[in-house]
Amino acid sequence: MAKGDSLKRYKIEQKAQTRKRIKEVIKGLKQTETNKITVSKIATLAGITRASIYANYQDLLEDLDIKSKAKKSSGEIKEQNEIIERLRDEVKILKTNNYLLMDQVVALKLLLKKQEI
To answer: Any idea what the Cα angle at residue 105 is, between residues 102 and 111, rounded to 5°?
Structure first.
């Protein structure tokens, strides 16, 4: 037996056990949960991270019709992009106004300095 075989076998067994645990959690949530079933709930109850579910067990979520935040509709994305554009425009205006105010402050300081002399 090669050195890495036992480690590979352990990882395969571990993944199978985790898959089984996730299936049991999903089954339990379907029976008891009246609210929306989330990946966070599944991960917490299964004792793993959400990232692990997305990376290794996405197929288990397909029958739940769970939508991740990354899978937003094109309308939602378009709306968010418009909001971001408006915010960027507002930031530009605020920066410009800030520069103007700072120029005025510097000019006032110079006037005050001249009067002190």
So the answer is: 145
AA identity, residue 15 = K
What is the pTM for the complete model shown?
0.49
Which of 49, 31, 27, 30 shows the shortest CA–CA distance to 39?
49
pLDDT for position 69: 47
46 closest CA partner among 15, 16, 17, 25: 25
DSSP label at residue 68: P
DSSP 12-48: HHHHHHHHHHHHHHHHHHHHH--S---HHHHHHHHTS
Closest CA to 60 of 69, 48, 72, 70: 48
Residue pLDDT, tens place only, 83-112: 999 999 999 999 999 999 999 999 999 999
